Amino acid sequence: MNVIIMGCGRVGAQLASLLDAEGHKVTVLDVDAYSFRRLPSTFGGTALIGDGTDEEMLKKAGISEADAFVAVTQGDNRNVVGAQIAKHVFNIPKVVCRIYDPLRKDIYEALGLETISPTTVFAQMLKEKLLAM
């Protein structure tokens, strides 16, 4: 699979590393070159400095050949914009968007975006741990 990941924070770098180790083609975009330090020395993908909400940058990253796009920056708004561009402008078949604010989930899903809220996922996990006896 050919995947573009927007955001090279802890999650983006970890996802890039996992996919790369499995032999997938991975391109990571981040506006801060320092973020790429999180990628392991064994990373065989591509790391590009740039904004994943910029159509020209996405073209440079090879979005026309991508099978999937993942938006995992620190900003919900940036993630939803990047995800919408990937899905609706470039017709990427699999687009996943991280959102921190669970109240936005329904709105983004109404836009046709698949979302994951770590806030909701982690709260559910904590509840299960607390109630397990």
Biggest beta sheet summary: 6 strands, parallel
Principal-axes geometry comes out as globular
> What's the number of helices?
5
Structural class of the secondary elements? alpha/beta
Number of strands: 6
> Segments where pLDDT lies below 50 for 5+ residues?
none
What CATH architecture label applies?
Answer: 3-Layer(aba) Sandwich
Helix content: 25-40%
Beta strand %: 15-25%
Tell me the Rg in angstroms: 15 Å
Fill in the CATH topology.
Rossmann fold
Write the CATH homologous superfamily. NAD(P)-binding Rossmann-like Domain
Write out the strand line-up for the largest beta sheet, numbering strands in chain order: 3-2-1-4-5-6
Order of helices and strands: EHEEHEHEHEH
Distance between the termini: 41 Å
Number of domains: 1
